[in-house]
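Q: what sequence does this backbone want?
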């Protein structure tokens, strides 16, 4: 997320989606053990005093610091602890502070505060939050994010792409904000398209550049087909798309869709399935700076059940018809070594589009690379949206 050492307040602010979603207080600990030998009971108490002071001063949900590390931490706790180690550089300086219950923090840095928050209310869909940056107008880049990933992770995209265009993103109301006030969703894919339509209408957009990232790709594709001339370009980055039997999907895609189907079938199955994702082994290969954001849907059983229903609908959506209806310029970015979404699926999609298509395939790179701020990706998007290939 950042290139400089953050304060405890900064880190807790960034991790609020995960900390707030967890039904129980998460534990945090020195994940690599490098400064563990210096933690006496009074050091542990001091760290918790600092955390409690920050929570009281800034209204943040805070974890509980423990040492030694627990024998059976959840994946959420390991992800949080790894993130804190990376961004804080260790907990010993926190334990050494005295006199200020908030740990000497001057205040919230605003790292998690997305710009241009706006409440969208439209007929047929629950009210939902959108975020924007850049000059107002009838043209905008619309980021459609992977299901269940907080928009906080994409603040750098809003900042980097908004120099000369409006950039907008949003969060699904069944998974974010006041989601507990809504009935459990049915997993209606059509409603995903309605959310995009409500967004375009609310901002008065007549020239939208839809960017579907990973699991957001089927929504972006279907919306581009549905809204026609209101969408000028479509970009899909490492797209998770389903074209039916005979079109390559990775073992991960097939297995994950099957797991989601079970979890979507009812609360009991969701509860059983959630235990699989709470195993720290599921973090293998996940970039530590992404883990607290990717794991957001796994903090609560009901939230996970909702996520399973929503995300299963995205993975099950048959993209064939929508792909053939596209008339916009299309950019498809993938990686030859993506083990989560098959690059051949991306190429198959390009072959279905009747209009102009640009395929950008890197020789190497993981699926999660696309979620990490990258100047090369930003430059590619700006050039394509501006009319280049």
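A:
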């Amino acid at each position: 997320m950042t290139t400089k050492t953050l304060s405890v307040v900064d880190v807790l602010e960034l991790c609020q989606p995960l900390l707030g979603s967890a039904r129980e207080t998460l534990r945090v600990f020195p994940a690599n053990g490098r400064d563990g030998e210096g933690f006496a009971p009074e050091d542990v108490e001091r760290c918790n005093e600092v955390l409690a002071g920050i929570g009281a001063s800034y209204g943040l949900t805070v974890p509980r610091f423990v040492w030694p590390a627990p024998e059976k931490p959840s994946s959420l706790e390991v992800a949080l602890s790894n993130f804190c180690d990376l961004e804080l550089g260790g907990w010993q300086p926190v334990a050494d502070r005295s006199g200020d219950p908030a740990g000497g923090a001057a205040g919230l840095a605003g790292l998690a505060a997305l710009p241009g928050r706006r409440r969208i209310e439209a007929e047929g869909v629950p009210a939902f939050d959108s975020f924007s940056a850049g000059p107002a107008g009838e043209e905008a880049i619309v980021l459609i994010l992977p299901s269940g990933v907080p928009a906080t992770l994409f603040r750098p995209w809003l900042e980097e792409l908004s120099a000369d265009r409006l950039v907008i993103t949003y969060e699904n109301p069944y998974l974010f904000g006041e989601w507990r006030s809504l009935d459990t969703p049915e997993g209606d894919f059509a409603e995903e398209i309605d959310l995009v339509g409500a967004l375009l209408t609310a901002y008065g957009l007549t020239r939208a550049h839809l960017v579907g990232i990973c699991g957001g790709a089927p929504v972006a594709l279907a919306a581009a087909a549905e809204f026609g001339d209101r969408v000028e370009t479509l970009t899909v980055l490492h797209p998770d798309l389903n074209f039916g039997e005979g079109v390559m999907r990775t073992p991960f895609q097939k297995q994950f869709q099957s797991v989601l189907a079970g979890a979507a079938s009812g609360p009991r199955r969701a509860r059983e399935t959630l235990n699989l994702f709470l195993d720290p082994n599921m973090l293998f290969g996940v970039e530590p700076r992404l883990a607290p954001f990717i794991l957001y849907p796994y903090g609560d059983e009901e939230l996970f059940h909702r996520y399973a229903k929503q995300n299963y609908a995205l993975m099950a959506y048959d993209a064939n018809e929508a792909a053939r209806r596209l008339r916009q310029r299309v950019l498809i970015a993938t990686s030859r070594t993506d083990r989560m979404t098959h690059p051949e699926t991306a190429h198959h999609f390009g072959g279905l589009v009747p209009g102009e298509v640009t395929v950008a395939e890197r020789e190497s790179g993981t699926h999660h690379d696309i979620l990490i701020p990258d100047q090369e990706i930003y430059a590619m998007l700006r050039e394509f949206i501006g009319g280049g290939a």
